Every structure is written in structure tokens, then in C-alpha cells.
Amino acid sequence: MSELSNPTSKDYQQSNKNWFASWFDTPYYHILYKDRDEQEAQTFIDTIVHYLNLPENAKILDLACGKGRHAIYLNQLGFDVTGADLSENSITEAKKSETNSLHFIEHDMRESFETKYDAIFNLFTSFGYFENEDDNLKTLNAIKNSLTEYGFAVIDFMNVTQVIANLIPDEIKIVNEIEFHIKRYVKDNYIYKEINFADKGQQFHFTEKVRALTLEDFETMMEQAGIYLLDVFGDYKLHKFNKKESERLIMIFK
Questions:
Q1: What pLDDT shows up at residue 21?
Q2: pTM of this structure
């Protein structure tokens, strides 16, 4: 973990204009989510790689890669992998795992890549963060423009209908002796998560804010971007999508 020296609430609580740029760059983000299911993630990657039938030594982009856990696993499967993320601290940490076939770069997902990839993965709800809706369309265009002629892209997003129906308004989660107080709610077509906690004598407050994009919203944007939606799944075992019951919204497109 890339620890920031002498953390204070002032260091982290910058402008909420780009909340993700500050929150994802703190060690507290990685502390709160450190117990994510690695086995489930690797099983999903195995399944999606098999489904896509990618060629040996395919070039894969892990877009919004964080500290690189999925990119590292993809590389272990034999692929040439690049992980890209906006968080400087996450990329600094990820670079410790670089090899001749595994690279990490700071990058804004709204911008296309010069390199073309056989597959682009945007996993675990790493989309819909932007204040301006046009930026979501820009991201889809950037993904499309960064694919090879026969390349595929995968967006793994939450199923907002199911999430909103099962939203837990208040929760306390204790991790590394830090007591995170979490509030969740829906406002102006965004799903909000307010996170409050204290550490080292300082009070902290962060807000996660993700646009409540439905399959229909993605279909509209993809049509505007000239993207062909190939298939839609509802979970990490690639069962068909059900709007009311599916936990995930997994889209395969080119």
C-alpha cells in the first residue's frame, strides 16, 4: 500500500469536482475495500478470457486498474497487459510488479490510447464517476478507438435496479481498527456513498458518487458511439442478465 506521509483531513478533502481523484488516491480507500473477494475476481477473469477466446500473447488493457490486482493476474495467464489508472499512488504501487509483459501508466479513461488492444477490461464498477454525462460517452469512444479491428471490450458495472432495491442506508464497517460510518442513498440519478471516519486524531469525510446507469442508458450511449453490443450477462458466471435479479451488468462490445 502506498501510504501518504502525515495524513490529515486537509490533505485528502480537496474539491469534490473530481471526488474519485482524491478518494482513490488515499490509503483509506484501499483499507476499506481490502477484503474484496480475490477468488471470485480471478474466477470471473478466467471465465471471461475463455468466453472471448483471446489469442495467445493478446494485448490487454485493464482500464481503471487500481493497484493492479487484475492486471497482474491477467499477466500470469500469459497475456501482455497494461494497467491504466488516474491515481498516481495506485500506479506507483502497481509499478512494483512490472515485467517485460506487464506495464502500468497514469491515464484518464476519457482519452484514447495510441496502442491498440485485443481486449479492454473495465471491471468492478469503474465507470460512471463523472459529473458531466458527456464524459461517459467520451470514455466509451476512447475504449472503442483503443481496440484492434477484432478486439473486444468488457464493462462490468453494477445492476442499478437491483442495487437500489437492496440499498443498505446505514452501515458501520471496522477495518484495521478504523470505524467507517457509511450512508447510502440515491439522488439526482446518482448512487451516493458517504464515508465518515476518524484516524490519528483527524476526522475524514469522503463521498463516492456513481451515475445510476441502466442497460438502456448504456445502449443509448453505445449507439451514439457506433459501438456494437454483443452480449449482456448478469453475474460473474456469465448467466443471462435479469433486470430485477442480476447482481451485475456485464457488457461485451466492440
A1: 58
A2: 0.87
